[in-house]
Amino acid sequence: MSFKEKRKDLVESLIKRKILTKTEVIDAMLKVPREKFLSEKAQSSAYMDTPLSIGLGQTISAPHMNAMMCEYLELKEGDKVLEIGTGSGYHAALCAELVAPENSQNPGHVFTIERHEELAERAEISLKETGYNSSVTVIHGDGTLGYSEAAPYDKILVTAASPEKVPPPLKKQLKDGGILCIPAGSKSFGQNLYIVRRDGEKFKSKKITGVRFVPLIGKFGFNSKSESL
Ligand code: SAM
What we know:
Elements: H1 3-16, H2 23-31, E1 52-55, E2 58-60, H3 63-73, E3 80-84, H4 90-99, E4 109-114, H5 117-129, E5 136-140, E6 153-158, H6 168-173, E7 174-185, E8 191-199, E9 202-211
Parallel strand pairs: 3-4, 3-6, 4-5, 6-7
Antiparallel strand pairs: 1-2, 7-8, 8-9
Helix pairs in contact: 2-4
This protein binds S-adenosylmethionine.
């Protein structure tokens, strides 16, 4: 079976499970080649609905989690997005496919921050090889500080678990009316995924489901001594 066929099977199963519902998200998941963001060894598992190791103790999230976050963020053409936790770069590419589709008259942009320089460099290469480098900017640094240079953002997604619901700089950098998606809780078990909507100076948060992410490490995250699960 080719990667393309496996990708289609995975997407169909996510539709059946009612995780994927929006046409644009379905199309983006059918288009972005997840295998190209993985090591050669991991490529055969690219279309299993499971997190996979990307080295340095980090993971690429399971496809159903990528799909859920994209759906809840209501990503649309023209959005300016900030992602905390580039990892492999796959989720940034999915976001780019949604906010800056080919031939868009109003392309958005994805800024993505990764604390491990080696992962940031590798993600940049994968994004270039898959053609998403013009709509994604990879930044090496502490994402709990956000990226004020390009703020405010229409949408912010955090792909590592935060000890508190939203690190204060991210609240500040979210546009009025913007949406933020973040897993939060303890450093290993007992985390939940939240959707937070900004309404002026109010932030309304909704708990979506229990999840398990690697910890968010940084000034407004866990400290680095607690990095391993
Ligand atoms: N979105 C990624 C993908 O598509 O492959 C998966 C992200 S992985 C679950 C979480 C990532 O967050 C790891 O690569 C980790 O190094 C990174 N991370 C943790 N704390 C961070 C921080 N403060 N700033 C930036 N990246 C951070």
